[in-house]
Amino acid sequence: MYLFFVNFMSLLGLKDALTSKVLLKRKGRLYSNLDMFQFLVDSLMFVIERIEHLGLLNNILCKKIRGLKDLPDPETASDYLESFTLENIEELLRANQEILSKVQKLSDPHEVTLLSDTHVTTVCGQQEQSEVGYNPQKHGRSSFQSGWRFCTIPAG
What we know:
Layout: H1 2-11, H2 14-21, H3 33-45, H4 60-66, H5 74-82, H6 86-107, E1 111-113, E2 117-122, E3 131-132, E4 142-148, E5 152-154
Antiparallel strand pairs: 1-5, 2-4, 3-4
């Protein structure tokens, strides 16, 4: 399944879309923007939801397929995400639209529907900018709500 996913991302031109559209400035980096993005997408593919658990992804298959000696640690991933500006997010949206247009050409859909999912994660202390808020399982505990938000895009 993982190899299929990696090949599908390659077929869609993810590398070209991200390297040409997203101009994220980071100093002294060991990993490229593309390496970091693919690493975070891989972690989602393997259902790793918390940044501090990214070390679980440190397997030989991911390293070999991505051509990396080592995978980024959780702190590197967190720093990467914090380096995004509003302009970078707009660039990501443009790259996403480019990729979705390729999906339309490949499958000729009438529309593309992407779903939404959220998850409340309880944390100890003030990790990952958490705060006391909505937590149906553990009332009054620090938590954060992670999730995906997608929309339906009509063909055209």
